[in-house]
Amino acid sequence: MFNVDLNCDLGESFGPYKLSEQQEILKYVTSANIACGFHAGDPRVMRETVELAIKHGVKIGAHPGLPDLNGFGRREIKITAQEAYDMVVYQIGALQGFLSTCNETMQHVKPHGALYNMAARDPKLAEAIAQAVYDISPSLILFGLAGSELTKAGEKVGLRSAHEVFADRTYQSDGMLTSRSQSDALITDQEHSVSQVVKMVTEGKVTSQQNTEVSLKADTICIHGDGEHALAFAKYIHETLKKQNITISLII
């Protein structure tokens, strides 16, 4: 029997701009990564998303990103380790405020976009982010790309690290995600996506764009809430995993 967490990036609307049918998506996931206002989100959206996640029994995590609303946090910005630390502490604190008003605890922290990918490769940034999470609460779980510098840094500092895999992204032979600047970065076909997910969970492997087998650990699967067909994607993956006798459960 295989067990895996299913997470989704949510709360990424901003002002009048609305992304995803998040109330419906919350029916199919076990963890939600809520934007904290830097790459997306705003105070109202954060509060509403927290309330919806609690209503659906979905565990909540902070989703800190780079301060880049125009680029949705997906453009790399050169920052120091100290700046990374400060950004993460600041954004976790913002979400923690809303959780406190609801008497809810935070489960995890998952960096967003470019910050996530930079930390996957850069040990110094990874260590700064892991330290920021640990300093706020050693009980928090750090979500990071499976086998990356970020998960290594989390484990080194004493955090539980959840190795994350992606339902809608392709991989390179070094285990990194294919850059979004490339045309083959995203998987839009549901069958292809589910096939990749099942293989990652049951075999601990993914086929790279170079047609090599890459070993990885799959503790949690990411679905992007800003995708064009995010709701249908979440529902289909949820239903297919159940048919494959893969239990969708919270990270314990």
From TrEMBL:
CDD domains, alphabetized: LamB_YcsF_like
Record's keyword annotation contains Nucleotide-binding: yes
Xref: SUPFAM superfamilies: Glycoside hydrolase/deacetylase
EC number of this enzyme: 3.5.2.9
Keywords for the protein's UniProt record, in alphabetical order: ATP-binding, Hydrolase, Nucleotide-binding
Reaction equation(s) it catalyzes: 5-oxo-L-proline + ATP + 2 H2O = L-glutamate + ADP + phosphate + H(+)
One Pfam family hit: LamB_YcsF
Gene3D superfamilies xrefs: Glycoside hydrolase/deacetylase (3.20.20.370)
Assembly and oligomerization: Forms a complex composed of PxpA, PxpB and PxpC.
Family: Belongs to the LamB/PxpA family.
Function according to Swiss-Prot or TrEMBL: Catalyzes the cleavage of 5-oxoproline to form L-glutamate coupled to the hydrolysis of ATP to ADP and inorganic phosphate.
Alphabetical list of NCBIfam families matching this protein: PRK05406.1-3, PRK05406.1-5
Protein name: 5-oxoprolinase subunit A
